[in-house]
Every structure is written in C-alpha cells, then in structure tokens.
Model the fold of this input.
Amino acid sequence: MNSKPVRIALVDDHALLRNGLASLVTSFEGYEVLFQADNGKDFIAQLEHYPAPDLVLLDITMPEMNGFETADWIKQNLPAVKVLVLSVMDNDSIIISMLKKGARGYILKDSKPAVFRQALDNIRDTGFYINELISNKMLNYVTQESSHTVKETSIISQLSEKEIAFLQMACTEMTYKEIAESMSLSPRTIDGYRDELLKKLNVQSRIGLVTFAIKNGLYKL
Done:
C-alpha cells in the first residue's frame, strides 16, 4: 500500500456528476482530489497551478477538447499519469481507441461505487484495469498481476506468427473482413484465429484480445 494518497484530477463537463465523483473519491481511503476541470483545455490550464496528478478520471464527450484529444495530450506530455475513462459509451471501437491513446481502464458511468473503487485500486496497484463489456454488462475483470504475467508470457510463446499478426491488427480500426484481406486469408480462417485466441487467452471479446495485446507489448501504444 502506498503511504501517500493517490492524487486524482476529474475531467468532465457535467459539474453535478463531477462533484458527486469528487465526494466519492474523497470518501475512499488513500485517494484525494487534486483538482477538477470542465474539459481537456481546462485540465491543461489547471496544471499551471497544480502538480501533475497520479490519475485522471476522464470523460469522452466534452466541448473544446474531448476525451480522445485529452488522453492523447496526456500520453504525449505526461506519460507517467494514468487515465481511467468514465463514459456512457460501450462501443468497441471507442474503447479500443481510448486504450490506444494510453487509457489504463474503462468503466461505465452507471457502475456501482464498489466497481469504481476496484478500478481505482487495480490501476494504483497493478497499473491496469479493463472490464469486458458485452451486452452492456461488465462480465470479466482483467488485471495485471505478477502471477498472470508469467502465465501470459508462456501463452505468448505458444502463439504462431500469424496469430500474433492477427492480434496486432485487431488493435486497429480494421474490421475482421479487412484483416482477412490484409493477411491474404479467407474470412473463415480469420474467424478461426479469433475463436482460437479467445479460448487460448481466456477472454470473451475483441476488447479482451486488444487488452491482452497492449498489456503484453504485442501492440505498441
């Protein structure tokens, strides 16, 4: 457990929700709210008066500078700062895009406080928190623990070059049909790679595949 509290910045244009989150964060032992911002531009301006936070709670849909732009700015300028996305959107391409921009976790705004706390704790302790979003429900939590790392390294060594290539392409905006064309393979073969990797990696969706690839350095952010 860290002796110093985790300093958090909240970036969301909905003041009422943001203030509620701030109160919730303050109620958690080991966390403190450093400052709040209405959008990415306001976040950058606040850094003139505050030190960089340890963690940013980031909304996606905001005026002037949205979550995509803000996450990208943080990745380029404050690489040590971790980002947890809080959004109402559970679209696969949006989640993948935020992961590629450096987000360490992604949860829905209607998540229960216990899930929110777990996300904060996982990011603090292991650096990562991603939950599978299927049928708008959170099903599985993927956390980066040392025991998992050894197991995952062993799994990677058993993957073929084409499976790794498929994993890397799955991290892009390409559809499965486009991946098949790029790899000069039939869509049925690509579906086979996907289904086999879902079993091997013990995940349930494309988001799970992307998370595994990013965590294990198979796709460079």
About this structure: DSSP finds ten helices and seven strands in the chain. The beta strands are 6-11, 31-37, 55-58, 82-87, 105-108, 129-134, 137-143. Residues 146-215 form a domain with the Arc Repressor Mutant, subunit A fold (CATH 1.10.10.10). Residues 133-150 have pLDDT under 50 and may be disordered.
